[in-house]
Write a structure and sequence with these properties.
This protein is of the alpha/beta class. It is built from eleven helices and six strands. This is Alpha/beta hydrolase.
Amino acid sequence: MSDSREPVLFLSGAGLPAWIWDEVRRDLGDGRETRVASRPESTKARLDDHVQAALASVPEGGFAIVAHSGGGVIGAQIARCVPERVTALLGVSAVIPPTGGSFISAMPVPNRWVLGAVMRFAGTRPPDSVIRRGLAHGLDDQVIDRIIADFTPESPGYYRDRVGRGAWDGRRGYVRTTGDRELSPALQRRCAQRLGADWHHDLDTGHLPMIEEPRAVAGSITRFLDARS
């Protein structure tokens, strides 16, 4: 049995604020130390800058990662950079690139071509209408308005930089969101396979289950961390 009291580092998806995890952290209880990864402030930040900002957010020693959406790319890179510290990684509708790949290369064709072109000409912030019907689908209007107001565009490096090829042998799990309009269940299955997840759970939610069903997400995290390797 692993140490189920290990600190948990939450990695928010691209552009999403730390508060999306507030209810999940509350439902996990005071007995488990949790942190939400900070972001680098530079608009030219690279993937490794995100890794260093995240590592600065967690205490010394071992920790588990819960990574959502694009945070899966950062989580995968952290595990490769400090494999001796990362005890487990749970993806929640997480983007996991192939070895040596990037967020963009994790997308299927032709989506990756479209995404690359859109970023070159329109930047990395999606239109409010896209956030409403995709990323935030299933949430009430007040919460959606707050997400739009607090959304922070990521740097191009977040999407284009490639993860390393280092090995890591920690525990791996994946929570799939079956009503997701942002990351299809089929793509999530491929990401879970790339992660090498041997623990799986499905939630009938959209792309932001930590807001839509925080208690269910907290339960998934607890079961994953308490499971035998």
